[in-house]
Amino acid sequence: LLLDLQNTxxxxxxxxxxxxxxxxxxxxxxxxxxxxxxxxLRESEQKFSTVFHAAPIAQSLAALSDGTLVDVNEAxxxxxGFARKDEVVGKTPGELGLITDAxxxxxxxDELRRSGSVHGAEIAARSRDGVPLALLMAMLPIEIGxxxxxxxxxxxxxxxxxxxxxxxxxx
Length: 171
Hints:
This protein is an alpha+beta fold and 171 residues long. It has 4 helices and 5 strands.
């Protein structure tokens, strides 16, 4: 019986050591997976940032909660007549005086709430200098760092609208 007790203690000790080794191995694998996921997330956010800032089309990133601009690209600054991001970040397009059609803005926001995204919406706006703009918009919610933002893309269709109007008038 004494021999069996010693063998049992050795067996239990061996199982404990094996259990600790398995736990350490699993912990290392989980840590590597978490670090790999964090690295992949950082790389994904970096890719998004690169594409966002290099895009030749006006894009903005705004907080979902209140529409406050968090980031804009160079094309957005040029379209709206601003020289630097710090002139607009932290403000809404309404506070900047860019939206001239409040009803259309509300319809677009209603569509965003209802369907989750907006594609091909037209809205009247104006640049910082008061130049009227006709914009074709797309809005899409995106998650970055656990927060939801609205990515808005604006295409200036002012020239096309003027051409269409001139063709209608010439008939």
